[in-house]
Amino acid sequence: MKDFLKVTKYILPYKGYALLNILFNILSAVFSLCSFTMVIPFLGILFNTQEPVREMVAMSITDIESMKHNFYYWLTSIIDNQGKFQALVTIAIIVVIATFFKTLTMYLANHFMVPIRNGAVKDIRNALFKRTLSLPIAYFSDEHKGNIIARMTSDVQEIEWGIMSSLEMIFRDPVKIIIYLASMIIISWQLTVFAFILLPIVGLLIGKTGRSLRKTSMAGQEKMGSLLSQIEEMIGGLRVIKAFNAENHINEKFDNDNESYTKLMNRINRIRFLASPLSEFLATVAVVIILCFGGTMILTENSTFSSEALIGYLLIFSQLIQPAKSLSTAWFNVKKAMASVDRVNEILDAENPIVNTQGNVEIAEFSGEIEFRNVRFSYNSDTEVLHGINFKVKKGQTIALVGQSGSGKSTIVDLIPRFYDVTDGEILIDGKNIRDYKLKQLRNLMGYVNQVPILFNDTIYNNITLGQEGISKEDVERAARIANAYDFIMETEKGFDTNIGDGGCKLSGGQRQRISIARALLKNPPILILDEATSALDTESERLVQEAIEQLMKNRTSVVVAHRLSTIKNADLIIVLNEGKIVETGKHDELIAKQGTYYRLHTLQNA
Asked: What is the C-alpha to C-alpha distance for residues 443 and 527, in angstroms, rounded to an integer?
């Protein structure tokens, strides 16, 4: 129930529509009841069992008996003055009018349900996307991309069809059931009490099947996440799959998982389709039992319960079956969708330690130094990646991080903008722990160029200006020129308005990296982080971009990760890492003279 309420809270912004929907559902139920109750006087006239009423009583809308008495007085007057046929015609006209207003109010109820259903699903999708965007990078290290995509697509769709499509029934049918039950109590409270005894039995049978449905649906959604992960991996690794002739292996694995998913879905749908026939069978049994019980009441001597009242009662009870059946169907759909709710809530309720631990200290500019003070870090509790890292970067300095793959270089630069938080120790900027600063302001101080250029399926212009507003076209062009990207941009079909495709697939690796560098240049940050920024460039482009980067670094604080040691000869400080520890520090010439780890790396690259 708690998880269900987390989803239904998205209905609150549309409470105005919800109230209108409930109002028209009440009116629809009242008009429906009016048309059905007319069968009792109709049969009474037809079978000559209707007792004439020739005196009026004081009437109140809260007194059902007085309203019923005066209605029969009015009907008796028509019979006395115009005949029984005219009375039957009058009742028929009342039924037609009541049915018209019933269908009109039913449409209006559904009309106001549309924005509730679609609006709530839109808000859920927005909340899920926003939450996913705000989660730390560490969260996605433990989750498959396909599983996250499944939650944002198929799980949200399941919520839409399972819960939001059931809102109509949840808002409408309880109203009908209450009104119909009230009328049944008025007709015969004894018979209604007997009917109430049957309802818990029906509810228990339906509820037991619903519980198994939720568990099976959860397994089905998990399997769909696995399938989407395989599809995503297949598309991303298609070159490798073809190069190693692994098509059959990949296809066989997908076929097996797809077969397993199909069997699960068969079981889920069979259980769900059981809801309608099960509720219909139980309702039929209930009608037969009530018919027998009502028959004994009529056959009892001095009974005040008439045969037409029993027929009218059964007619109203039969109308109770449909909303009860709809509610049971809605219950099955909700139970099935609750598996998706659980999976969506895992993201919406996921803890974000980065945001939770951010402070309120403002930092508009960088004026002192960056300090790593006994920093330790591990991606999981089993393996520590960094072991007691200590160094300082003063404003205006260029610090280079070198070492073999896996030595912790990229991890160190990821800690500065708080993509991850340190496990132990602290990182300080201008003497304060970076956790004390407002996260957005902290990241505004930094420009970041990743080892693998990350671009979006958008225009070149929008990729360069990502996250920045009020940028002039001249500034964008200037950044592109410095990054040695302007010439090839202008050679494209639409220049800066050219769409570069998914991940920049229409550009070469070097072109993608130069766009990424132009993006960092445009931001013009006081702190520049370059994670092997020139690794994807050819020799000529690397030379031109390196010159631009060196010019950008002047009077700017830069932290550079590089495999090519020739690019960091002029660094103010070179930090050599090995297996998460600092093994050497110094300038290029000093480290060469030591003939240690740096010297060996330099010798290997220049061999």
From this structure: 9
Q: Are residues 209 and 147 located together in one domain of the fold?
A: yes
Side-by-side strand order, sheet with 424-429 = 386-394, 369-377, 424-429, 432-433
Q: Distance between CA 582 and CA 408 in Å, rounded? A: 10
On whether the CB atoms of residues 364 and 438 are closer than 8 A, the answer is no
Q: Is residue 356 part of a domain?
A: no
Instruction: Give one DSSP letter per residue of 144-160, joined into a string.
Output: -HHHHHHIIIIIHHHHH
Percent pLDDT > 90 in the chain is 11
- Which pLDDT belongs to residue 432? 92
DSSP string of 169-230, one letter each residue: HHHHHHHHHHHHHHHHHHH-HHHHHHHHHHHHHHHHHHHHHHHHHHHHHHHHHHHHHHHHHH
CA distances for 298 relative to 44, 157, 334, 438, angstroms: 15, 52, 42, 79
Report how far residue 387's alpha carbon sits from residue 409's, in angstroms, rounded to the nearest whole number. 12
* SS3 at position 131: helix
Q: Is residue 425 part of a domain?
A: no
Name, in order, each residue with C-beta under 8 angstroms of 116's C-beta and a sequence gap of 6 or more.
11, 14, 17, 18, 21, 164, 167
User: In angstroms, rounded to a whole number, what is the distance separating the alpha carbons of residues 297 and 192?
Assistant: 13
Residue 531 pLDDT:
80
Do 345 and 453 belong together in one domain? no
- Quick one: tokens of 5? 């309420």
Claim: this prediction has a pTM higher than 0.85:
no
Q: How many of the other CB atoms lie within 10 Å of CB of 51?
A: 8
Domain containing residue 273: CATH number: 1.20.1560.10
Neighbours of 22 (CB within 10 A): 16
Q: Which residues contact 500 (CB under 8 A, 6 or more apart)?
A: 455, 457, 458, 459, 460, 463, 506, 507, 512, 515
Same domain, 402 and 321: no
Q: How far is the C-alpha of 42 from the C-alpha of 87, rounded, in Å?
A: 8
Q: For residue 218, count other CB atoms closer than 10 A to its CB.
A: 16
- Do 106 and 211 fall into the same domain? yes
d(CA 39, CA 45): 10
The answer as to whether 374 is a domain residue is no
Structural domain that includes position 86: 2-351
Q: How far is CA 605 from the centre of its chain?
A: 49
First to last CA, the chain: 68
Q: Which are the contacts of 11, defined by CB distance < 8 A and separation ≥ 6?
A: 18, 116, 120, 167
Pick from 115-129, 330-344, 580-594 the range whose average pLDDT is largest. Answer: 580-594
For 213-270, write each residue's pLDDT tens digit: 556 666 776 777 777 777 777 776 766 676 667 778 788 888 888 888 888 888 877 7
Q: pLDDT of 479-535, one tens digit each?
A: 888 888 888 899 888 999 999 987 788 888 778 888 888 888 888 888 988 887 666
- What is the tally of structural domains in the chain? 2
Average pLDDT estimate for 574-579: 91
Q: Is the domain of 342 the same as that of 454? A: no
For the ranges 55-64, 387-396, 545-554, the maximum mean pLDDT occurs at 387-396
Closest CA to 454 of 405, 369, 512, 383: 512
Strands 432-433 and 424-429: antiparallel
pLDDT at residue 139 in the model: 77
Is 178 within 8 Å of 300 (Cβ atoms)?
Answer: no
Question: How many whole angstroms separate alpha carbon 430 and alpha carbon 368?
Answer: 5
